[in-house]
Amino acid sequence: MTRSSSPEGVRTFRSPSGLVMMIASGALALFLLGDAVVRASWSQMMLLAPWVLLALWLVYELSFSSFVRIDDSGVVVQNMLRRTQFGWRRVRDIDMRWQLEFALDDDRTVTAFGGPTRARPPKPTRSDREDGGVRVPAGLRDLTEIRDRWDGAQGADVDAPIRRTWDTPALVAIGVIAVWAAAAVAVVNIG
């Protein structure tokens, strides 16, 4: 999981493969749009751009947008277009099946698609055998860190309500791309 450059005490868990996918997809999209400008024209690129941006938006939503952010006041879990925010007092239990799960006091469970995940234990290396140490999987270390933050916050007044919202910037972006694609289709059909 990657660490964010957020303020002190805030930790963001996000799949590292999502970042790799976004960088590779962004580079490919930039190449395709640049190639369209070089081989055709700016106007042709503007007609092709919404389709490339639609594919890039899908990659963003499926691989990068999901995350778990914890701080002293509570948790924010974003699963693609849905965002759930709650205080530590609302949490009844934290567990990891395949993904991180928060059992809340409203009898719902929030599964975090972008948070720590269960993985196979790492293979012991030669240095592990010599030291007698056991390497702990990264997902288990992250789960322990989240549970420690939860345990530390139970005495504090962190009773934020459970808020479920939509990812408005992503919805606005797909709306703009859809309007742009409809305009591109209209321009092609007219001319």
Automatic annotation (TrEMBL):
<keyword id="KW-0472">Membrane</keyword>
<protein>
    <recommendedName>
        <fullName>PH (Pleckstrin Homology) domain-containing protein</fullName>
    </recommendedName>
</protein>
<keyword id="KW-0812">Transmembrane</keyword>
<feature type="transmembrane region" description="Helical">
    <location>
        <begin position="12"/>
        <end position="34"/>
    </location>
</feature>
<feature type="transmembrane region" description="Helical">
    <location>
        <begin position="40"/>
        <end position="60"/>
    </location>
</feature>
<feature type="region of interest" description="Disordered">
    <location>
        <begin position="113"/>
        <end position="134"/>
    </location>
</feature>
<feature type="transmembrane region" description="Helical">
    <location>
        <begin position="170"/>
        <end position="190"/>
    </location>
</feature>
<keyword id="KW-1133">Transmembrane helix</keyword>
